[in-house]
Amino acid sequence: MISPRRALRDVFPYQPGKSIASVQRELGLKSVVKLASNENPIGASPRAMAAYRKAEKACALYPEGTSPELREGIARFHGIEPESVIVGNGSDEIIRLLCEAFLDPEDEVVVSQHAFIRFKQQASMMGARVIEVPMTDWTHDLALMAKAASPRTKLVFVANPNNPTGTYNTLDEVSELLAAVPKTALVVLDEAYYQYAEGIPGYPKSLPELAREHENLVVMRTFSKAYGLAGLRVGYGVADPEITGWLDRIRMPFNVNLPAQRACLEALKDDAFVRRAVTANDAQRVVVARMLGELGFGVGESATNFVFARSPLPGRELFKSLLRQGVIIRPLDEYGLPHHVRVSIGTPAQNKALFAALRNVLAKVPA
Ligand SMILES: Cc1ncc(COP(=O)(O)O)c(C=O)c1O
Asked: What is the pTM of this model?
């Protein structure tokens, strides 16, 4: 048999949240609530969806490869140059492009121990050495990460806020990291949950301010969370044009489909929708955290649309029991956290279903 590249031998596929359809199929359930992938429970902007439907007429044609209108829309939105923007098939594609563009085998990548797992996976696929730095209070310790960076470091990944821990780093911490890391390394701020955290005092305003000041900074955002467009797969990176130029050179020729480009351009204009989504999330996150606390979970502070909690049962056991009740959450074994779970914030009705299911499951556990 032909063998894959050496770097791929230890690579495990990313485990996405279990889908509603698969749980329906496997367990014969009609009604399933998914709180496993940090999607937006109120859906997407009606204006964005109207633009999506309108694009139907142009689907016989290839989209423009660089997503120029969306790229310009993003640039206008942030007050930056279009050349600083690269649009990807989800921000996941931007992570991949960064690793493919900048990592030779044996180059170093610095991440924190429980950081979003795609950083480590993608860097390993390139044969890079991944240096994992311990967290402090479930938060990236950026001072320790800076110390771990060496002249061989090419990428330093910081999800801010982080998935799955839900914690964030302040502007001061990020600025100190940027000052301390060698200029030969790119610092990548993954701000997938930006809209949920931006109102927190001390949370950094990375665009346009930080990006203008630092040539070695990449900021990533996504349309998958607060914009409610996870199914369209669109995210973007902002960086010095020399960096985006390399990413542009190696991306797939038509990486973002046409209806997705059009819908996301419109989504950017509907700030009222994003405000509505964030307000609903903030209110329900308090409810979910309180109820989990009452049921014996140790719940952390969260700057996102999910909570991270220590579970009274091993996470995978809880996950399996809840599946049988028609509720999908996320166990965190792959993060090395077998006693923790991640629960996305749902609508009031979904959260009620979660608690009814949790009460059933925990009532059956011998005291
Ligand atoms: C921190 C973080 N970054 C990136 C992503 C990928 O998002 P997408 O590829 O949908 O833009 C996610 C998805 O959950 C995430 O949590």
From this structure: 0.97
